[in-house]
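--- STAGE predict ---
source: upstream dedup step, 1 unique chain passed
mode: sequence only
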Amino acid sequence: MAKITYVTSSIVGPSTVSSSIAKYQFPKFLTAEHSTTVLSRTPIQEPEITTEATVKTPPGNAYVRAILFPFFVVFHLLRSRGETDLVASDRSGDAILPVAIFHRLGFAPWVVFCADSPDGRENKRGRADLELDVSLLHTELMQRIAWYGYRNADRVILSDESSEIADSRKTVIKGGVDCETVERVTETTERTESDAVRVLYVGNMYYHRAIDVLFDAFDHCESDVELVLVGPSPEGGDANNLQEFVEHVAPSLEARIESLPVNCEYKGKLPHEAALAEMVDADIGMCLLPYERGMPHFLDSYPIKIFEYMATGNAVVATRTPATSELLDDPQLVRENDPEAVADTIDSLADDGNLREQCQTRNREVVESHCWGTLWNRIDDEIESVIENDERTTPMTEAQTE
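--- STAGE serialize ---
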């Protein structure tokens, strides 16, 4: 067990988002498996972390904490410099800045836990065409500091590929799924009786998520299917998301659903376990990745929902990318985000029960290696390697490694 200080701007917990998400699982791993002190800019309320770790937060309101945070972190790191085996940080610039200063002084090795492709935020801002203002300047500054961390930390552990980080310095944990939660939900969920094949889409109902392609595909479907939608509506997003939907899809989500030739039920945004229950009750899960719509990092991303579709026993229809091709076999992949091609793939899985069952069985078997319990072991090996190979630190004693 190593002594680790983890610096973070915030920790997203499972009460509000998927417990499969890496930016929750990374700190959860650290606090569960090692003697960890968490220095956080925002208060942490997740009991799985607060009961296992020593959590410290600067005083004051949100504005004061943002100003004090770098000084707060440097003070605590210097104070514990002889007792820290490793300093870890999330990908936020305000967490990386003080850790970078500490790292330059040569006191301890540094690992960055990056929950997704580091160019993702930049792509999102570019797609939204945000105007230059003080807030954006601060965001750009934080992003530049974050890139310093990606390029200078001893190791970057991230859940998506990024060609901008040298292979020798990164460890790719290709996303994962909380298999324990999936198993619990599966045991308590009764499947709905239906003659139609149940197709499920979980995600934002936004144009840049190819919701128009999904709807158009069901206009072309010839099989007996029904569609279930789970996720935020375009009306619930920002003005840009709603404008794109109205311009490219329909006047409203309700209007487009009413025009579909298949039965479609929109369930809105659900708590994570309720969304998992919908997956357990489905037969086919949908995940289209229109990277040509200003989201090029989709090419290398490993979407959480694909892992969760697989773990809950669904066949999957997904855009073929380098990432999805590693997870899914040919009958489940679509070469292009073309509605007719998507419809053909849905029809083939819906009409051929044996093929659908083969895909479902294969997916359950493949996803086992992506359970977070398994991935934690790999992360632990990487952390121990960084500590043992760093010349600035004394190797962990036998008592520490037990």
